[in-house]
Design goal:
Largest sheet: 5 strands, antiparallel
Oligomer: single chain
Radius of gyration: 14 Å
Number of helices: 3
Number of domains: 1
Shape: globular
């Protein structure tokens, strides 16, 4: 759904804005496709295991304009944190993280300018 302010999200038991804009959601989809193509290893975590991810040294990927679903860029990995559905359904164990590891500069950025 799209709310009156333009945020893209899902509505179940309650509203959960996933991305600040539809364009952010599209960027997230494109990034997921790109990362899955170039990563040497993809790891999926769910529920309480998501809290074990250490994001020190990672920066938010601003292009996705994430709210409850966010992306993080590290030295050789991208991490997607999907919390929107868990938030909307009030089901914390529904959180999912996907870690795309073993990425080179092209895999990390795909031609996108540096976050810093």
């Amino acid at each position: 759904m799209i709310d009156p302010s333009g945020e893209f999200g899902i509505q179940a038991e309650k509203w959960a804005p996933l991305h600040k804009t539809i364009e952010g959601w599209v960027e997230a989809l494109a990034l997921a496709h790109h990362a899955s193509k170039w990563a040497r290893q993809v790891t999926k975590l769910a529920g309480d295991d998501v809290t074990s991810i250490d994001l020190r040294g990672y920066v938010p990927v601003r292009e996705v304009m994430g709210l409850t679903d966010t992306w993080w860029r590290g030295p050789d990995a991208l991490v997607a944190l999907y919390s929107g559905e868990a938030t909307s359904l009030d089901f914390p164990r529904g959180r999912v993280a996907v870690i795309y590891a073993g990425l080179d500069e092209w895999g990390l950025r795909g031609g996108v300018a540096d976050d810093g």
